[in-house]
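Justification of resources, computational component.

The compute hours requested in this renewal are based largely on the per-chain cost of generating structure records like the one below. Each record pairs the submitted sequence with a full structure-token output. That output is archived, and it is also reused by downstream analysis tasks.
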Amino acid sequence: MFTYPKFDVEISQQARVSDLGWPEPGDAADDSGLGCNRAYMDLRRLSWTDAKKALADEARLIARIENAENPEDELSAIEEEYDESEIELYGLDIGVASTVVALSAARCVPFASCNGGVFGGRHHEVYPLVAFYARPATANLLLAIATEADIGLENNGYGSLVVFSDDIRKFPAFADAMIRRRKELNALRLSAPRTPKPAEKRGDSGQYELPL
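The structure output for this chain reads:
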């Protein structure tokens, strides 16, 4: 049976909205390499319906891995079946995919994500995280939602934010909390946010390290 690892990372929810940036026009398009992520995909047009489906699809895949005699073999089977299945996680890592899609539905711009290798395979990050851009008003509400889900949320430098955890299971809970509060997130689109300073481009291609 599958045993969830715990990651050595301190959980906190704190973000300075005055430090937030936003991608320049065109910088968040496909093949832009936003955040120096060569695998970046533009998911900005995803909806809350997409988010709910991603959360349900992800839960089914996680259940398969949890109940498998050999979790890594089950992950390999899932990857082989993916193209012909009705599962839609947009090529994202299982465990953090629902968070990426929910952030996109909230009109944030996720640009990097990783499950930290929780379910097997080689991964760049040493703990699960999703890096993204958010408007100030949205960031304030996300801080409250992150507190509810007991998941970390901090500034990530260069005008972005990062949500992270010591336990991958907190990510679907965070996605579910965003979906449940979607009316509040949608209402923020009607307000007129200040124009944040443009997001600076990262000068390196290394890990998204947190100021812990």
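The chain has one domain: 13-189. The CA atoms of residues 114 and 128 lie 5 Å apart.
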